[in-house]
Design goal:
- This protein is α+β, with helices and mostly antiparallel strands and 270 residues long.
- It contains eight helices and eight strands, in the order H-E-E-E-E-E-H-H-H-E-E-E-H-H-H-H.
- The strands form two sheets. It has a five-stranded mixed beta barrel. Strands 7-6-8 form a three-stranded antiparallel beta sheet.
- The two termini are 34 Å apart.
- The structure holds zinc ion (ZN).
């Protein structure tokens, strides 16, 4: 049955997660939308000069997309930039974090499954990186809220095994059980990670009071490491894989700060 063109057209806001050159001049993109979640689309002729929809569809750009429903992929008929996040392209560490956020969302969400909380989190977090806010707390906030938005909210207030309220002592974090273990239950997960009082406090402030409160805390290097490992290991369990953007990011963070050289790196594109 034929449908007329007008019935096939629709408009949505979207953030570009990844893109892939296709054929002579086309580009296949993965975007995240507020109402339809992750979406694969095709921008025909996007790599030709003066393309109508080409220049706006860069990584991490927030756009209004005009689309036509296609047999396989919906087709871009036009696009307007809402926020290009242009500063991200001049700041390698921020760009590396944006790549990590995009990879987490792309890996852990399903096509056409609405999740407005994920969309808002991604949009806000990219905007903060673009403003030059310290990526470390932005990334920990992103990870913690993303876990919750996907149904994996870490248990930070009672022991995930015996359900007793946690005391202000060194506990441990079990990524497999999805939360903190009290000293009595720690042996139920030999791979549980040590979590100091201050690291637990940081996670709880982030969870209860949000990013603005967390940026006022000054965790030590060791506490930062504990918080970071806790969240990263949890994602590894949820995703059952490592994230390529994390290896790239670690490489960027290990570079001597004064080095003007641009590393020869490729960000994952699909
Ligand atoms: Zn317990």
């Amino acid at each position: 049955m034929k449908t007329n063109l007008r019935d096939r057209l629709y408009t949505t806001e979207a953030i570009v997660l990844s893109r892939l050159d296709y054929g002579e001049a086309d580009r296949i993109l993965t975007v995240f939308t507020p109402g339809m979640g992750k979406l694969g689309i095709i921008a025909k002729g996007a790599r030709r000069q003066k393309s109508r929809s080409g220049p706006q569809l860069d990584y991490f750009t927030r756009v209004t997309l005009h689309l036509a429903r296609g047999r396989d992929l919906d087709v871009v008929t036009g696009a307007e930039t809402i926020d290009a996040h242009g500063h991200l392209r001049d700041a390698l560490v921020a760009y590396g974090h944006a790549s990590y956020f995009a990879e987490l969302v792309r890996t852990l969400t399903q096509e056409r499954e609405e999740n407005r909380r994920v969309y808002e989190l991604l949009a806000k977090s990219l905007a903060l990186l673009d403003e030059g806010i310290d990526p470390w707390p932005v990334a920990r906030h992103f990870e913690l809220v993303l876990l919750a938005a996907l149904g994996y909210r870490p248990e930070l207030y009672e022991c995930v095994q015996c359900h007793q309220a946690l005391e202000a002592v060194a506990n441990a974090y079990s990524p497999i059980q999805g939360g903190v273990l009290c000293p009595r239950c720690r042996s139920t997960d030999p791979s549980a990670l040590a979590l100091s009082v201050n690291a637990q406090k940081y996670l709880r402030v982030l969870d209860r009071n949000g990013l603005a409160a967390a940026v006022r805390l000054r965790p030590s290097e060791r506490e930062r490491m504990e918080v970071e490992q806790t969240l990263k290991q949890h994602f590894r369990i949820v995703a059952e894989r490592d994230f390529t953007s994390l290896a790239v990011l670690q490489h960027l963070l290990d570079l001597p700060a004064a080095s003007p050289a641009q590393p020869d790196i490729a960000f994952p594109s699909a």
